[in-house]
From TrEMBL:
Domain spans labelled Major facilitator superfamily (MFS) profile: 10-459
Keyword Translocase: no
Protein name: MFS transporter
InterPro entries to which the protein is assigned, alphabetical: MFS, MFS_dom, MFS_trans_sf
PROSITE patterns assigned: MFS
UniProt keyword annotation of Transmembrane helix present: yes
CDD domains named among the record's database cross-references: MFS_MMR_MDR_like (cd17321)
Residue intervals passing through the bilayer: 12-32, 38-64, 76-99, 105-127, 134-156, 162-184, 199-217, 223-241, 262-287, 293-313, 325-346, 352-369, 399-416, 436-452
Cited Pfam families: MFS_1 (PF07690)
Native source species: Zhenpiania hominis
Topology within the bilayer: Multi-pass membrane protein
Compartment(s): Cell membrane
């Protein structure tokens, strides 16, 4: 499909869905204190609004990606937008926290369907020479959603209440649904024989991801999460064994061994997301508890990083069409590592300029990592496997985010025991941050070497 009108529609649908799925989560974070007061529940209970969605997306993205590769990506994407938008609209009328959590699970089902199809739909509409450029648009929309969420979400929550965030999400989703339903080109006819579905493989995958991620996210709550994590890892071993011995696997596990470029690109994504996700969390506390800025001022300072990501991602994607995306993403990873080492040096007397510089470096680094690395991943697989490849990349992001917060939790407990991060003294807080950022910088540095082990000659169009 090379029709210009259809290409523009495809970009618009993908950009809207990439924006709204990230905007909702980042905007909702600003409402968590108000939600706790409104429903009279603890912060831990409200945190399930985030955890339930994250677990659902991570567990179901790959199964839906496999389904979309066979049943049609437009169909799965459209249904996903419908589910996401309808559950958002219903959440605006939530009468209890548990009703909202249940609707966030449903929203996660729609989100998984979107994440597993929007990138394959996008790159399927363009030639291989334009892949990096159009991926840049999608990734820019993702970080526009992340950067707009705290600002717009804060305004909506303050003036109209938390329900308005769900209303806006539903309205934006309705626009995407209209465009996808009526304007997206039909799926290509699949003339190949429909492959049987590996039902047991899908069930093992869902159980593996759900138990492992849940256990990791709750490691600070006693011995049970360690047991849950161990069970999840054990199920993962069974999953890999089954994938190696079934004719129609959910994931071609052998491809990770036979295609080092593909394996390294996914490993680099996991390390990069894991190393950078907690930056805004740690810095938001540092800027308020150590430097004394208001939450509003801290938010405007932190917006620098995602704003640069959104601004530069299309440029980075365009460059990756002309030069090796493998090398570009390695350079981006190195910049992220450099920024993290700078964060490891901030303290009570550090100037705001220094913090800005570190945010700028990591923002540029992530822009030059994400678009080219996504381009590298998708260039390693055939078109028929785009859905699963995109889903695995989305799972790397979710697992990386979880691991990032696990590192923060472990480091905080090591330094401060049960004391809340916000209640620590400035000296203890900065020591805790130094350790966390050194660990993240080390992970990012390891990611640079993993990236450099990739063989650019394995890139395919």
């Amino acid at each position: 499909m090379k029709n210009k009108r259809e290409q523009k529609t495809t970009i618009l649908v993908v950009v809207i869905t990439a924006f709204v799925t990230t905007f909702t989560g980042s905007a909702l974070n600003l409402s968590i204190p108000d939600l706790g007061r409104y429903f009279g529940v603890s912060a831990g209970a409200v945190g399930w609004l985030v955890t339930a969605y994250m677990l659902t997306v991570a567990a179901l993205s790959v199964p839906f990606g496999k389904l979309a590769d066979g049943a049609g990506r437009k169909r799965i994407l459209t249904v996903g937008i419908l589910i996401f938008s309808a559950s958002s609209g219903a959440a605006a009328f939530g009468v209890s926290l548990w009703m909202l959590i249940a609707l966030r699970v449903v929203q996660g089902v729609g989100g998984a369907m979107i994440f597993s199809t929007n990138i394959p739909v996008l790159i399927g509409a363009f030639s291989g020479e334009e892949r990096g450029k159009i991926l840049g648009y999608s990734i820019a929309a993702t970080y526009t959603g992340l950067s707009a969420g705290p600002v717009l979400g804060g305004l909506l929550n303050y003036h109209l209440g938390w329900r308005s965030i769900f209303v806006l999400t539903a309205l934006i989703g309705a626009v995407a649904l209209f465009l996808a339903w009526l304007r997206l080109p039909a799926d290509k006819k699949n003339t190949s024989r429909r492959q049987p579905r590996d039902i047991w493989g899908n069930l093992l995958y869902v159980a593996m991801i759900t138990l492992t991620m849940y256990g990791l996210s709750e490691l600070d709550r006693g011995p049970l999460p360690f047991l849950v994590t161990g069970v999840g890892i054990g199920i993962g071993v069974l999953f890999v064994y089954r994938q190696l011995h079934t004719e129609y696997p959910v994931i071609q596990v052998r491809m990770f061994r036979k295609n080092p470029a593909y394996a390294c690109a996914n490993a680099a994504a996991l390390l990069n997301y894991g190393a950078t996700f907690a930056i805004s969390y740690l810095l938001s506390i540092y800027l308020q508890a150590v430097k004394g800025y208001s939450s509003q001022t801290a938010g405007f300072i932190l917006i620098v990083q995602p704003a640069l990501m959104a601004l530069l991602s299309p440029l980075a994607g365009r460059i990756s069409d002309r030069f090796s995306p493998f090398w570009l993403s390695s350079i981006g990873m190195a910049l992220c590592a450099g920024g993290l080492f700078l964060f490891a040096g901030i303290g009570e007397t550090t100037s705001l300029f220094f913090t800005f510089a570190a945010l700028v470096i990591t923002g540029i680094g992530f822009a030059f990592f994400s678009s080219p690395n996504t381009n590298a991943v998708m260039s390693c697989v055939e078109e028929k496997d785009y859905g699963v490849a995109s889903s695995i990349l989305a799972t790397m992001r979710s697992v990386g985010h979880t691991l990032s917060m696990v590192v923060v939790t472990v480091v905080v407990r090591l330094y401060m025991g049960e004391k809340a991060l916000e209640d620590a003294g400035a000296e203890l807080l900065t020591e805790t941050m130094h350790t966390a950022f050194i660990l993240f910088a080390a992970a990012c540095t390891a990611g640079v070497f993993i990236s450099l082990k990739r063989n650019p000659s394995e890139k395919q169009d």
